[in-house]
Specification:
With 188 residues, the protein is an all-alpha fold. It has one domain. It contains seven helices and no strands. It has helices at 7-36, 44-74, 76-80, 83-112, 122-150, 158-178, 180-183. The longest helix is centred in the N-terminal third of the chain and has 31 residues, at 44-74. It is globular.
Length: 188
């Protein structure tokens, strides 16, 4: 390796690449989903693109976790003493949990209903608010992780950061569910 390149630089580049791939996949999947259901159904082709976006999220998350661990290993004490780092770690864990729920629950439900008129499915209509909440959690979480990652330091404690995050998630979920008829008029 050339002398001017440090291990930390490579880890940061990998970390940013993971964020770009993961966040891009998450936002693209959301955009495809909302664009697709304007006609009250998702075609099999649209479903394939949503799944592809989902795989991009997982690839991005693997890169984020591996590169994050490598960065962490460079200065364990500093990271463990950082409320910002611990908050970002918690937010990434929430992204992973929300992603698992999305891929294990929501995508199979969407796949079962692909090509069908969603409003005629009682199951889909009952579960639609959970899908919308998951999308709101995803957007706020990815954005929060990005913002926390950009700042070198944050003058707030872990609990303050997480309190703000929880309020933002709750607001996003409430707003998304309240606006569901505006977001997707024919479906919800």
């Amino acid at each position: 390796m050339p002398d001017f390149i440090e291990a930390k630089t490579i880890y940061v580049i990998l970390h940013l690449l993971g964020v770009v791939i993961g966040m891009g996949g998450a936002f693209m999947s959301d955009a495809i989903f909302f664009s697709s259901i304007r006609d009250s159904k998702i075609s099999h082709t649209e479903m394939r693109f949503i799944r592809l976006g989902g795989w991009m999220v997982w690839i991005g998350l693997v890169i984020i976790v591996v590169s994050g661990f490598l960065l962490f290993s460079l200065n364990v004490e500093r990271y463990l003493a950082s409320g910002k780092f611990l908050a970002k770690l918690t937010v990434v864990a929430i992204i992973i949990i929300n992603g698992a729920i999305f891929h294990l629950v929501h995508i199979p439900r969407l796949h079962r209903h692909a090509g069908q008129h969603f409003p005629s499915s009682d199951e889909f209509m009952r579960k639609a608010p959970l899908l919308i909440a998951s999308g709101a959690i995803s957007v706020v979480s990815w954005t929060s992780a990005l913002i926390l990652g950009v700042f070198h330091s944050v003058p707030y404690s872990y609990f303050t950061i997480m309190g703000i995050y929880v309020v933002l998630v709750a607001l996003a979920v409430l707003i998304a569910i309240a606006l569901k008829r505006k977001i997707v008029p024919h479906l919800l």
